[in-house]
Amino acid sequence: MATSQGGGFAERGADLHLDSVTKEFPGFRAVDDLTLTIPAGSFFALLGPSGCGKTTTLRMVAGLEDPTSGRILIGGDDVTQTKAYQRPVNTVFQSYALFPHLSIIDNVAFGLRRRKIANALDLAKDALDLVELGHVAHRKPAQLSGGQQQRVALARAVVNRPALLLLDEPLGALDLKLRRQMQLELKDIQNEVGLTFLHVTHDQEEAMTMADTVAVMNRGKIEQMGAPEDLYENPATTFVATFLGQSNLWRGEVVGQTGDYVDVSLNGQGVKVLASRSAVSRGAITVGVRPEKILIHTDRPEPDSSKVVVSDARVIDASFTGSSTQYLLDAGVYGEVAVFSQNFAVGHHAVEGDVVHLSFSVDHVFGVSVEGDIHDAESYPDNTAALSVAKE
Asked: What is the rounded CA–CA span in Å between residue 196 and residue 378?
């Protein structure tokens, strides 16, 4: 990514603090008593499904919606009652909203000129250089690709040097290859300009690729917040376990603790969970393991204390996806189990009807509370072990 020249883009952003923010609409509460702090200069992602309250939160920060209660502070200043145009904030939307009759450089300089900034064109040129589009400065938006237009929209927001840049599903209109390219470029730009980025998305890969910190939102509340790897490896709730990637989940009962492990009974089958990876130390528990953590074997592996072995699992479905093969297997007491197996070599892969064996390390198992479980009671008939695999 090109560096800016004389544009002053390295100015640090401001922190954002939401203090017990609630937003109610007739008949429902979109955001429920949300308290959140985003450090200055960080790339923060608010992740969740449609209707979870993430876009409403962003709109309140931008000043486009008024909170029902609570306070919004940017850089320590209370902006709750401040008009949108008076806040040190810029927003990049999924729709680029470029002026079709203006050149690219005039689009980027538009806000600066309205504020009567003397060197508007020079600053606009620096911003275009930052997103590597200086060579198209005199073209019109219709002459650019979707990815280029998105970069122009970003340059137009960054050139104003806001303390906080809001990204509202900014890559949703791009194709998969371009979206992945833009994910990396957005992160590079954020590192370059040093501003605080708040990115709202429903795309788990997008959030994990770009953000320093991810907050998973559900029903107006944050279910879990942390580094992407920590959320993926140590989900705190079934919602996080199934929304952020996929998980095999089984209902069980804590029966004791041995050393660093919680002992769990899954309908008589014993499974150990690292205490550091379990949100539950007694009573009912939901245990899980990610599909890519499970290995498929032709010959039954020797069981030992470090792994769980599931014998005689029958392949129900096998889907070749290129880098991996995704299996669904009938694993007896474990129900239907999903396995993602990397295609390391050309050769035989298990096919529908094959009987194989499964294993997974006990250190890859996590445990979450059944309280607020998103799965119906029918998922766990007669309290037997059961499975849930989240569908993307």
From this structure: 44
Mean pLDDT along residues 171-200: 82
What domains can you pick out in the chain, each with its CATH number?
16-230 (3.40.50.300), 241-383 (2.40.50.100)
C-alpha separations of 134 from 1, 127, 265, 304, 347 in Å: 12, 8, 63, 61, 49
User: Which tens digit of pLDDT belongs to each residue from 339-375?
Assistant: 999 887 666 688 899 999 999 999 999 999 886 554 4
SS3 per residue for the chain? CCCCCCCCCCCCCCCEEEEEEEEEECCEEEEEEEEEEECCCCEEEEECCCCCCHHHHHHHHHCCCCCCEEEEEECCEECCCCCHHHCCEEEEECCCCCCCCCCHHHHHHHHHHHCCCCCHHHHHHHHHHHCCCHHHCCCCHHHCCHHHHHHHHHHHHHCCCCCEEEEECCCCCCCHHHHHHHHHHHHHHHHHHCCEEEEEECCHHHHHHHCCEEEEEECCEEEEEECHHHHHHCCCCHHHHHHCCCCEEEEEEEEEEECCEEEEEECCEEEEEEHHHECCCCEEEEEEECHHHCEEECCCCCCCCCEEEEEEEEEEEEEECCCEEEEEEECHHHCEEEEEEECCCCCCCCCCCCEEEEEEEHHHCEEECCCCCCCCHHHCHHHCCCCCCCCC
- The confidence score (pLDDT) of residue 114 equals 86
Of 234, 250, 242, whose CA–CA distance to 380 is shortest?
250
Nearest to 311 by CA among 288, 338, 333, 341: 333
pLDDT for position 5: 34
Q: pLDDT band at 211, cuts 50/70/90?
A: very high
